[in-house]
Amino acid sequence: MKRTVCLCLSLVLFLAACGGTTGPNATRTESRTVSTPPAGITPLRDLAQKRAIFIGAAVDYDALQNEPQYAYVLGSEFNILTPENMMKFDATEPEPNVFNFVPADAIVKFAQQHHMRVRGHTLVWYNALPTWITNGTFSRDQLIAILKQHIMTEVSHYRSSVNIWDVVNEAVADDGTLRQSIWERVIGPNYIDMAFSWAHEANPQAHLFYNDYAGEGLGTKSDAIYNLVKGMRQRGVPIYGVGLQMHVSTQYYPSTQDVITNMQRLAALGLKVQITEMDVKTQDDPNPPAQRLQDEAQIYHAEMSACLAVTACEAFVMWGFTDAHSWIPIFTNHADAPLPFDTNYQPKPAFFALEQALKEQ
Ligand code: XIL
User: What global pTM score does this model have?
Assistant: First the structure.
């Protein structure tokens, strides 16, 4: 019963916040009686702002379009967002030189209406490529021209609205070598430097990131990412920061101290860092469900604390915010609960752990 009331009132607030269609007389009483956001007393975004970081989530376009509660929680709790799939190559250039920015534009508009930053994700990845790229046979020069045009067009389209870009995503393999991909095979390793220069040319103000997973703490892959970006800095490539994805699980996650040490060595290169895609898999946790949620909460606390401990850490972004919309159950083909809100948009222990970490000085 309580939840139903909460959902309805949230809907009213959402419509009002969007300059919605509730009409002059509609539901005025309800919207006046609700003065708090859906989860904590103070929205996470306000707590984060006091600590000089951004807090955010990846956005599922369909959920944003279809679920008022999704949009309401997103807009009230977070001040930065990442389109989960709609800025990727297959979504934005489905046919050669045919660009589609309609879904991504809608997400950017939502961000603007709610005073949120946008992380553009992602310009160059081995995945999410349209078939005309994966099935094509291109010479090196042709592929360079294609990639340049793709990057210049997308970054230019968002020149006034997106100033953070994951330029290159997941270019390092798990063993620390350069990942094999069409870009690496046809263009060669310097596709990475090229991509950053073109993004910079299209928007010199943009903050350009290299983004990857499993390099958050210390180890072979983290060393490889460190060496990659160190080389880029030495060559004068316009890289601004490193995105640490932070797809972790209750069974495996980097310690606060290792993440701090890694962030600090990146900062010593003159780079910023952001946690860009955090979620916590719980499906392999042998503990009962309630304990799993506590384990998950403790990991959110640990990684948020790492970000707060390092001045160069600018943002803490999760790969979604509600268990109703997470890529993990699809990707692993197994039920899971990796995010700080449950499937009914109610805050979980992980939410309160983030809140607590943000309040701790
Ligand atoms: C994932 C999306 O969440 C899925 O919906 C999609 O099917 C595949 O891509 N690292 C990244 C993200 O950088 O772009 C990925 O997003 C998750 C892993």
Answer: 0.91
